[in-house]
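DATA SHEET
Item: assembly model
Revision: 1
Owner: S.N.
Input lines:
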Amino acid sequence: MSSKPHSSNNIAHARRTVQQLRIEASIERIKVSKASADIMNYCTEHARNDPLLMGIPASDNPFKDKKPCTIL
Amino acid sequence: MSGAAGGVASVGRVQLKLRKTLKGHLAKIYAMHWSADSRQMVSASQDGKLLVWDCFTGNKLVAVPLKSAWVMSVAFAPSGNLVASGGLDNICTVYNIKAASPKTLRELDAHTGYLSCCRFLSDSEIITASDKLKRPQTIMFTNHIGDCMSLALSPDMNTFISGACDSLAKLWDVRDGACKQTFSGHTSDINAIAFFPSGNAVITGSDDCSCKMYDLRSDQEVIGYQDTSLNAGVTSLALSSSGRLIFAGYDDFNCHIWDSLKGEKVGVLSGHDNRVSCTGVPDDGMGVCTGSWDSFLKLWN
C-alpha cells in the first residue's frame, strides 16, 4: 500500500521520540530547594561585583560622556 | 524560588540612566552582540549593514556591507577578529573585521531555513540556529519541531541552550550533539534565551509575554516573570553579571528590569520609539545596551 512507507516513517519517528524521552527522564535531578538556594547564593556572592546593582561612580563610568573641566 | 528568596534583601528600584544613543543605522536594528572586551559591540540592521562600535566613545569603527539586507542575527567572535551574521538569506557569513576593509571569510550555506541566531565557540567554530541547529563540521542538531529562534552558550562552552517556536527550550551537548534536557511551560514562541552566569539555570523570554527561569540540575521551572499589565511579547533578554537583574526587551518599546530571585519588576528602560529587538550586557557587566526597530542603540548604566 502506498501509505506503508509513510506509516513506517511515523513509527521510526515515534521510536526516536520515545527513546529521547527515556534519556531525558533518566537524568539525575536535584531538589528544587537546593537548586534555588544555590542560585540565591550565587547572586548574593556576586552582588558586590555587579556594577549595575551597586552603581558606578561617575569617574569610573566608561559610557558616561566626560565633559572637560574649565578652571576659572 | 520567590518563596525561598523571601529572606534576600530587596534590590529596591533600579534606575539606570541613558548614557549614550548610538545613531548610524538607517533601518530597524535586529540584533547586537558585545565583544569579549566589553568595549566594542556589533549591531545588525535591515539597512544592510553591520556596524562595529566603540561604546566608550560612541564612534563607529567598522561598517560591513551585507549582501543581503535581511539580517536577523549577529555575533562577535571571542577573539574580536571576526563577526558573523545571517538571516533570511539562509546563510551564515563570517567576516574578518581586522582586515583593511572587512573581508568575507566564509559563507556557511547549508541551512534549509532562515538563520535566527549564531554564536562563535572560537574563531574556527560557530553554532548556528535555523529551522535546524547546525555546526558546519558534521554535527546536526535536529530535535526542535518549530523554528529555533535563539541560542545561548553556557559559560563553560560545553553546552548550549536553544529556544524555539514550539515553545520549548532544549539543552544540547556541543561535542556530541545530543539533546540532554527539554523544558516546557511557555505557551508561545520562545524568542530569547540566556544562561544564568553560574551555568546552572537558563532564562527564557516568550511571545506569551512572560519570562521563566529553568534550573538545569533540578530539571524544572523555578520561577516565572510575568505581570498582568504587560501584554507585549518578550523579544530579547540579558542578565547583569551577578544574575540578579534580568533586562527583558518587549514589544511595548520598553526594556523592563526584573529581580531574578523575587520575580518582581524593579525598573524600566524607556526611551525607544519602537519595539526593543535586542538587549545585551557586556562581560564586565558595566552597562546594558538596547537596540530597537527605531534604528537606535542605547547604552544605560
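QC remark: Chain B touches chain A through 46 residues (CB under 8 Å).
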